[in-house]
Amino acid sequence: MRISSKGDYGLRALFDLAQRYGEGPVQSEEIAIRQGIPVNYLNQLLITMRRAGLIESLRGPQGGHMLARSPETITLRDAIIVLEGPLLPAEATREDLVPTEPDDDMLIDTVWDDVRGQIEHILAQITLDDLCQRKRQQRGDVMYYI
């Protein structure tokens, strides 16, 4: 499976917003600078994610972008499917070719279905909040609970 710059940059933008969740709108220029994403490309990705309901956008001088839901409820699977489309297309692009061994073809397709299922399962287990927690652990931030 290959993730394009669209998926990578979009996920980075969502992660940036997750780290600032609850602080109000974040301007795309700020995200672009922090994440090293070309601002025009980022704006296209933000439109896609807004249309899919992952983020909300506000216009005006105090405007910007924010997550539409809490980081605990947005999985990497949600993000990647919005940005990249289906993981490993169910049907190969062998439009005019008919295999002479159809059983072999079905067997291989079953393997791809299993791979797709495993990838989706792993991505569905990781939320944006999990990434934020990993970053805090990496930096050594300590959370005290009383």
Anisotropy-based shape:
globular
Major beta sheet summary: 2 strands, antiparallel
What oligomeric state best describes the polypeptide chains here? single chain
By DSSP (H or I, 4+ residues per run), the number of helices equals 6
Tell me roughly what share of residues is in helical segments: 40-55%
What is the distance, rounded to the nearest whole angstrom, between the alpha carbons of the first and last residues? 44 Å
Ranges where pLDDT stays below 50 over 5 or more residues in a row are: none
Strand order across the largest sheet: 1-2
Record the SSE blueprint.
Elements: H1 5-19, H2 28-35, H3 39-51, E1 55-58, E2 64-67, H4 76-84, H5 102-124, H6 128-139
Antiparallel strand pairs: 1-2
What does it look like?
- The chain is mainly alpha-helical.
- Helices cover 55% and strands 5% of the residues.
- It has a two-stranded antiparallel ribbon with strand order 1-2.
- Helix 1 packs across helix 3, helix 1 crosses helix 4 and helix 1 crosses helix 6.
